[in-house]
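User: Need the bound-state model for 2-phosphoglycolic acid:
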Amino acid sequence: MKTPYFGTNTKMFKTPSEACEHIRRLAELTRDIRDRMHLFVIPSYTSLPSAVSAAEGTGICIGAQSMGWEERGQLTGEIAPPMLKEIGVSLVMIGHSERRHVLHETDLDEEKRVSCAVRNGMKTLLCVGETTEQKAYGISEETVRTQLKVALHSVTPEEARTCLWIAYEPVWAIGTTGVPATEQYAKRIHEVIRDTLNTLFGADIGLEIPILYGGSVNNENALRFIRQPEIDGLFIGRSAWDAENFNAIIREALPLFEQCSK
Ligand code: PGA
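Assistant: Bound-state model below.
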């Protein structure tokens, strides 16, 4: 049986003390079910050292929201893998929709970041998803395939097996103006992602890579997504920033995931 993934990216919210409080509370609330899931929190850079301390011994994995593409160098404002690893961070998210569409990172930028992350043995959560316009033009599947093929171009099958997680987050579904995808739509794109991973790395490895759904996941729709066999976990923004609410979603979704015996 697979183990589901539940995670949150707190974006540019929460100061270090707020991030720690969130993690401590989440740890308390989920203590009895922790070994049945992968649970992760991705706070902002300045919260990382204290977040790692707060999560110590809880099994909650702490990740960074992005990362530079070299081990060191003239990249002002970026953070390198040794800097993260030294403080105990071994997970990094690459290519979140806001990095792509607000901060204008390209597929080629994400390729450089992903290849640096896996080369350094970091767990790498690559986010993909189409914009409203791409959906309207009927090129959602092509867009997601392209994002994967470019970002994962230099990732070896072995790196993919040990390091890679994927989040499908349609851009139009994210944030306060987002409309969540229907479960049928999410299922279809998850199938496309799985097919692409199988093509890139071979089915024995492709089938092992977790694919999470994100974009306006909340208490009302979480169950509809998690019951899809193609969905290995939920990547949640706003609805997970309150630890009580995140715990409530997990407690409903976890047994359903297990019942679907994925
Ligand atoms: P949301 O954010 O759940 O608030 O839509 C999702 C995300 O940006 O990862």
